[in-house]
Amino acid sequence: xxxxxxxxxxxxxxxxxxxxxxxxxxxxxxxxxxxxxxxxxxxxxxxxxxxxxxxxxxxxxxxxxxxxxxxxxxxxxxxxxxxxxxxxxxxxxxxxxxxxxxxxxxxxxxxxxxxxxxxxxxxxxxxxxxxxxxxxxxxxxxxxxxxxxxxxxxxxxxxxxxxxxxxxxxxxxxxxxxxxxxxxxxxxxxxxxxxxxxxxxxxxxxxxxxxxxxxxxxxxxxxxxxxxxxxxxxxxxxxxxxxxxxxxxxxxxxxxxxxxxxxxxxxxxxxxxxxxxxxxxxxxxxxxxxxxxxxxxxxxxxxxxxxxxxxxxxxxxxxxxxxxxxxxxxxxxxxxxxxxxxxxxxxxxxxxxxxxxxxxxxxxxxxxxxxxxxxxxxxxxxxxxxxxxxxxxxxxxxxxxxxxxxxxxxxxxxxxxxxxxxxxxxxxxxxxxxxxxxxxxxxxxxxxxxxxxxxxxxxxxxxxxxxxxxxxxxxxxxxxxxxxxxxxxxxxxxxxxxxxxxxxxxxxxxxxxxxxxxxxxxxxxxxxxxxxxxxxxxxxxxxxxxxxxxxxxxxxxxxxxxxxxxxxxxxxxxxxxxxxxxxxxxxxxxxxxxxxxxxxxxxxxxxxxxxxxxxxxxxxxxxxxxxxxxxxxxxxxxxxxxxxxxxxxxxxxxxxxxxxxxxxxxxxxxxxxxxxxxxxxxxxxxxxxxxxxxxxxxxxxxxxxxxxxxxxxxxxxxxxxxxxxxxxxxxxxxxxxxxxxxxxxxxxxxxxxxxxxxxxxxxxxxxxxxxxxxxxxxxxxxxxxxxxxxxxxxxxxxxxxxxxxxxxxxxxxxxxxxxxxxxxxxxxxxxxxxxxxxxxxxxxxxxxxxxxxxxxxxxxxxxxxxxxxxxxxxxxxxxxxxxxxxxxxxxxxxxxxxxxxxxxxxxxxxxxxxxxxxxxxxxxxxxxxxxxxxxxxxxxxxxxxxxxxxxxxxxxxxxxxxxxxxxxxxxxxxxxxxxxxxxxxxx
Length: 987
Description:
By secondary structure, this protein is mainly α. Among the domains are: 17-220, 3-Layer(aba) Sandwich (Rossmann fold), CATH 3.40.50.300; 226-269; 602-662, no CATH class; 666-735; 740-835, no CATH class; 925-979, Arc Repressor Mutant, subunit A, CATH 1.10.10. Helices cover 65% and strands 4% of the residues. Strands 2-3-4-1-5 form a 5-stranded parallel sheet, sandwiched between helices. Helix 22 packs parallel to helix 24 and helix 31 (623-639) packs antiparallel against helix 32 (646-662). The protein is flat. It comes from Actinokineospora fastidiosa. One of its GO terms (molecular function) is ATP binding. Pfam families: AAA_16, GerE. This is LuxR family transcriptional regulator.
């Protein structure tokens, strides 16, 4: 029996030609200056690593720089960005001049990676004082890769993205969204079978796969025939056909399973019944064939995770010379694979998992305790707290686990990784009661719950933020600690107010807080409570009371130098100024609040000020200013770790809406998925905003999936149901089902008129569009009853739009440009029931000219239709051409197809280079052929003979041509056609 080749460079690439060709093509394109990314998916063990190794070999042979990094599994979580740090290790000298990267390398030198050779002198500050700016880091990584790609092609391989931490996922999203003309290929791999419905990688994949430079490559398991060919090639023809078939069937088409089964068969070839029944049996059987020392080493390594440093193994091992012997045997049997930096890696994660789960309970606790002892001596070093918390928890050392979890949470918060911080805090809360009171940290349970509430809110988990805040309220005695009780109630009120539909509950809670500090005007929490109360009252439509509490908050905050509370109250006062039409005063107040919050270190308040200013600018139609404010705000939120806070999320959502409005759709789609585990409410908010673009671009199947995953019950009090209704209606409309579209809009209108009245204008306009289509269909069928019913409903819809515009007071105090534009469209759509009024459609086109490019293009489409009905072909041609330019630029496929169908029917060319006369073709193709032959001097009979039509038919065509040109004779028709540029002279 020949020696079996191992999973790696020697494994045959059977039945993987398609995948390899795709990777070669992506690399060739990248090497040629067209940056690309490939996301390689497949079940565990299907052969993804082999494909990345093959691509790396191809690239290196071509002179490319290959950088590889791997994500950690859950065995040992810690500092974010691990795969990127590992990948950039070989070029760390190039990164040393960049402060952000230098700090990152400085934070990671103890994680078993190659020492970047950077210290506090290189970074400009001691590592313990570093404040990693996430946005600066992203830019630095992008700049470094771009710089390297200027010298030679670069291939960045990031393996096992299903284990990527939230910060790494955001960095991947940042890099892939900026692939342009760099000689750079990014290859990411992930396990498809690990991606359950709520897996945090799923939304990131949805985001990335919308990018034009990103391609997904799925590696399916082998078919039966391919699996047999694979096993046969792997065994180098040394197995009988029966054994090949058995191994192929047992492997289930998985390359790793097949190799493991084959290796076990090779080791026990003389005993055919020695083949294990399951893969786990195979894996454990291989481990059991190792010597006692090697087995101990493998078991010890499994507790450390997929990858473990040699130094750490030596520190926790209870053997001296036996460690080297055991390691050597494990490496020789290809159980552990040595890597650069004195790190050992299990050849496959499933192998490590099988070993770990086979440990006896007591053995597992003992080994985790050994790791915890080793780590406890290095507390204070980056990443150690998280690892210590994990191992202490598993070894039942709850006191140590509690303290380490709190330290790990603080470390994650400093690094701007709130999702990781929340995990550590939740572990601390889980074991808090089990730790004796005397051994707990000084931080109270109430404070810990409040902290968890804040972190949950900043990581996109508003429901959990409320739950933790409620628990914090319940955990504190308001009589013994009235100030702290008021403080946690303010936190709960803010969390409730951030969740739409719970404003009254928020008011009740903040009034409880106010009652606790009513006789304590000299304490800081009093100013904060008044500021929060003002915010809630303004939202509930009580401007006078809101202003009174805001002014009281400002007075008390200034007296006690509580700048954050003062800035928060100033924001509310500025919003009240805006509602009175004092726009400039409002914006000045918001900028003052923003600067104050920034100066006193109140980032949450600062983000609120930025969002409110952006809303002010958007509502007034100042889209360019709004875009700048939003981009700066989103960047600032990311910088301070508040991307998923209440106003961080609102900034991102409004940024998407603004980009949708001004036609920056690619950027909007890049923001439509969080790339991070968030609540279903947050996911639905962003996904549905992204679906607005997806449906407009004709990706209907994708929209179907989003709508199927959306649960309206989770979004009862958010704007999401409105967006979902509009998306579903537009999808039905483009599919030619206006009756279904109208059903969606009726339901959405019924909900919106209760909770979000101003949007009723837009919904009514969309419903009128569907009603007009239905009216045309009914008229075609001569169904008078249906026509009358539709006309009655349309009249009600138009009346609703007009009344909403005239009676509902918007945020700005007056109807803004967006509201006026949708009202103009509603008027124009209503005119379609009885024909079409070009003047009304021109008004709608002009109204959307404030910057809503897609909506303006839709109105131009309808304007062209109205022009054709009134025989204004020149007006129709111009409207179609301008709309087509926008539809083509945006990639709005359904609209572009509708425009071109109309142009074909009207015989209008949409060529942007054509002259105005050339854009309108008065003649049918047959008429043009007849006129061209007449111009050459042919008689009617000669024309008929040449075109295979009768002389009488030629005469009919000529009559139509002369009527269109206003000519009375054949010769005059030819002359007029030449004069108007409608006919080219023969050479």
